[in-house]
């Protein structure tokens, strides 16, 4: 059911969508507990007191209950707020009494069980694992997971459930600390991952035992079977990689440049398994089991078959938040149909979000989770008004316009989140979606057909070639759109306050359009004005900024010198040529600082003094260095130490007055210890970017 009249959102509709109100207070509790933890005693006491308060309130006369009905609503709101906060605390693996952070001690013997088939990366082999530690003669299982990186040339053909043993110390997963960078630590926490370890050939031993779970074993076996079929019958690396992502969400063989093209054109949702895919699967299941609808006695069998299909596909696709949200929502719709009840789409959406956040509260910060829900909510609220803009008698044109109306409606509420996470907007999203969405749906059905008839090699080979041609055609179309002038509007930075103001502006604006409310129009203009005031202020701050940033990028020396909205990029040759590192580690900071122009130079040679900005003196050291004696002691603002840099510190102290030492991300462990010891002895400030994050200095 689509709602487009704002009168529908009055008191009557709120009674039909109770989970919207419950979800709001529940997510509020999760958010507060994550950023400003409330003591559990306070939360539990509040939960036990509130039912007593509600019971006492219900004993009042009707007159007082009606007069103070808002108190009853606030009580329920506080109750679910506390439930959300408690759920966040107990589901957060960092605070689990049996978690790795609580029970693991350095140098303990670790038994790791591979939790999934290992994946080949550029320089290593990556796998997720659960662990146990040997404590005396007993084995103690720990909650949570770790990431294991194996050296590539030492990797064996292992499998899910394989066990290894090692003593190398686990390292906590930390953010890079680069300004504006992706919060990798929170992303890992959402998957219950807290530590990582890098293993060489001599660091571990393979155990003869396996530890598997039959459901996971079945899922991985089914996934491998599907991948084998696609790899056998679909020719072309790019086409095969996209077919794997499209059908089961397997993205390890996706072409990176192709993914960027899909992102730039606003059709990356085609690759990411989401409600679009599950909606198509649900429709196919309804068609397949439509004959059973004639027999009322078989309605529960029909429901069971439909739900089995939905959840089998969801787990086969990796059980990501976006697909789980859709699976829960379609389950609610299927149950409502079976019970002959009309279900509110908004209530089903809120209910599914509530269930998922009960399972994992940290999904609230997952970009895919946020985009998935805002897209569906936006379609529910705005698809009908947008569709009513134009009328076509021709059924084909009408179908095309309906598709575009869905695309436009989905953008309304997803744009603020896209700007916040990705800092860009696809200008030709309509042009790309009008072809990519229907074509990808046909390809998805074709891939299911291919898997079904794979036992007939001749037919499967023909089907694979047709699918490969269709995927190549879709890829070519998306890449051509991406190459058009102004295909993507880049460098769009909005902070959290601006995102909130954008949503408030959209809410008042929609209410004004639907209800012609002058108050809503004024409120819309006020919030829009506040948004632009904050945005203008960020440009003003950027125009005054004079700052040095030394980034934390593994095995690279990278410096940005910000002078107003211009930046001088000082880096070693490998960093200057590594576009991916620049995009992932450096660009977020530059976008945040509103950079307009970039000039670059290679880092100076070892032992060279360099005046980079005004009177700022930097000494670059990257290997063992001997200094000539000077009559007058020289003041150096910053010594940047990298790689194997060591020196005669007595000589160094005689000729230099050092104000700050920075150890970059390329320094060896031996050189790090030597410099840290010397700086501590001489009381020189020392910043290690590998452990403390990027070094930021405000320039005079």
Polypeptide structure, described:
There is one protein chain. This protein is α/β, with parallel strands linked by helices. The protein contains 25 helices and 23 strands. Strands 1, 2, 3, 4, 5, 6, 7, 8 and 9 form a 9-stranded mixed β-sheet that branches. α24 (669-682) links the parallel β21 (661-663) and β22 (686-688). α3 (40-58) runs antiparallel to α5 (69-91), α15 runs antiparallel to α16 and α17 (429-452) runs antiparallel to α18 (457-483). The protein is globular and about 95 Å long.
In DSSP terms (H or I, runs of 4 or more residues), the helix count works out at 25
The mean pLDDT is 84
Query: What's the gyration radius in Å?
Result: 29 Å
Query: What percent of the residues sit in helical stretches (DSSP H or I)?
Result: 40-55%
Low-confidence stretches: 1-12
Relative strand content: 15-25%
Q: How many strands?
A: 23
Shape: globular
Q: Could you say which structural class the secondary elements and strand pairing correspond to?
A: alpha/beta
Largest β sheet strand count, sense and barrel closure:
9 strands, mixed
Q: Terminal Cα separation, in Å?
A: 60 Å
